[in-house]
Amino acid sequence: MNREQMIDKVKAEMPERRWLHTQGVMETAVLLAERFGEDPVRAELAAILHDVAKYWPTERMESIIREKGLPSELLLYDKELWHAPVGAWIAEHEYGVTDADVLNAIRYHTSGRREMTKLEKIVCLADYMEPGRDFPGVETIRELSGHHLDKALLAGFNSTISFLLEKGKRIFPLTIEARNALLE
Ligand code: DGI
Ligand code: FE
Ligand code: FE
Ligand code: FE
Questions:
Q1: Which residue among 14, 94, 147, 162 sits deepest, i.e. has the most Cβ atoms within 10 Å of its Cβ?
Q2: Interface predicted TM-score (ipTM) of this complex, two decimals
Q3: Quick check: pTM over 0.80?
Q4: Which stretches make up the HD domain (predicted)?
Q5: Contact assessment for residue 26 and residue 105, using Cβ atoms and an 8 Å cutoff
């Protein structure tokens, strides 16, 4: 599947506003890849696909998690987390992506994990700071991203963790591990 075909197929999976977000993540991931010495083509590919499962019905995500052997502990945490590992599965099996680093950048774009690759960090950070994002602290993240990939991403995880604490929600262990690893 070429880039244009992939874009058309992903676009058809989501409402217009989510496609606008995806385009923002694509542009931002390319910029960050150029800034921090990663491959912009692979960064863009992961960005195109990162939210492909975002609007799948819960039951459809749940059956992929159960039937394809994805980590079942995901089911104990917020449904918002599920589209990332499910998206990686779809990228591999429906879009023919074989690059493990690209697949992991999709898989971990929501939670992060410890020892993230540069590509994983870039996609996760681009998702936080694309031009359409507007949440308290996003400007600080954008400023840090001018020079510091890890500090900017840490600020992103801090903001997610604060948000989850405020809402009284569970925090997925990988998110805590991702934050701790950036402080080491
Ligand atoms: O899919 P997007 O909206 O572009 O962004 P995302 O994939 O980073 O999803 C973020 C949502 O996931 C946000 O509403 C917070 C929610 N979430 C729920 N539990 C957790 C979590 N995010 C992280 N990182 N860790 C959690 O434990
Ligand atoms: Fe997402
Ligand atoms: Fe994110
Ligand atoms: Fe996203």
A1: 14
A2: 0.94
A3: yes
A4: 18-132
A5: no
